[in-house]
Design brief:
The protein has 332 residues and is of the alpha/beta class. Helices cover 41% and strands 19% of the residues. It has two domains: 132 residues, ATPase, nucleotide binding domain (Nucleotidyltransferase, domain 5); 170 residues, ATPase, nucleotide binding domain (Nucleotidyltransferase, domain 5). Bound molecules: 5'-O-[(R)-(carboxyoxy)(hydroxy)phosphoryl]adenosine and zinc ion.
Amino acid sequence: MITLGIETSCDETAIALFDSDKGLIGEAVFSQTDIHAEYGGVIPELASRDHCQKIIYIFRQALGDISLSSIDQIAYTAGPGLLGTLLIGENFAQGLSLSLKKPLIPVNHLEGHLVAPFLGGDKLDFPFLTLLVSGGHSLIVDVRNLDDYKILGQSRDDAVGEAFDKVAKLLGLGYPGGPEIEKMSYKGDPKKFTFPQPMLNSNDYDFSFSGLKTAVLYAVQDLDKMTDQIKADICASFQHAATEVLTKKISKALEDTGREGIILAGGVAANKLLREKMSNMQESLKIKVLYPPIAHCTDNAAMIAYLGSLKAKEATYKLNSHARPRWPLETK
Ligand code: KG4
Ligand code: ZN
């Protein structure tokens, strides 16, 4: 069975084809980061316009020489995300459904991130914990089964990816900020600045990143002058503080739940220091840690096509809109 996946929830126009026997057989992604870079964040209207222009080309590129008639069903991201961009993916999916006479499966983008590590054939037995860290979310999720999720903890303010992006912006680095901060960190000393690790000792699994971001702002304001070396030291110290909180909270959740596996998902899962800390945990706690390849950590349609293949029973020919800017993971 071949599932076409469509992802347009934010600033990536992505299409992929997943074959239940052969795995991923086609994939194309266009990232709009250059369009939004000068604004230091995603501009929804510009994002929608660009999805409109690119989606047909990305579709053709993903399809390659696979025939249209071999597509069995169409899965698309229905939320959470920007309403305007979600509607473009949904309309494209509905048009294809009508013309090809194939059913549709609207799926949750966050659930896509949760299953992304399995795309390459890696296995992890249920139940396990997922640390889902992106530009819009910082969640610790207890994954008991497909469709059976419990959010154990989440950020009370900024998502961790958002904090990376905002800190990068105040240091005058490029967008998205995560990879820029990571690059600068290699030249910096993580001990030069002592930034707070918010909520580290709170007796729950929640995060807060806005205080950490403000501490960086104050440190910058206190400087007599900024140099490249100081910038690198700030990046390394910020990255150290952010990844420490993530690692310690997930390790507390592991200890309390007795789960034996973790999945690291979402754009921030591309961060090498975070991966290194999770790998160390794998050895010290004798647990299994899975991470998707970097291309499938950030937004992509492969995870949407794969999730659609797991939800084939939900496919319908109904053309009503399912686009939802907010769609908490625990709700249907
Ligand atoms: O999952 P994603 O592509 O989109 C959302 O659904 O948000 O995540 C994007 C976020 C951005 O905030 C970006 O700065 C962050 O992931 N990110 C990183 C890295 N690569 C991307 N953060 C830290 N280190 C990285 N290497
Ligand atoms: Zn995402």
